[in-house]
Amino acid sequence: MRLSKPKQFFIVLAAFLALGIPFKVMVLVEGFTEVRPVNAIPPIAGLVCGPLGALACGAGNLIADMFGTFNQTSVLGFFGNFAAAYLPYRLWYIYSDEQPNLHRNVNILKYVLICFSAALSVSWFLSFGLYYFFDTWIEDIYRYVFFNNFGFSVGLGMPLLIMLSSDDVNIVCDPKCKRYLILRDEKLKRIFPVIYTLNMTLIMAAVLVFHLSPADNTALGIFSAIGIFGMIAISI
Question: Model pTM?
Answer without folding.
Answer: 0.93
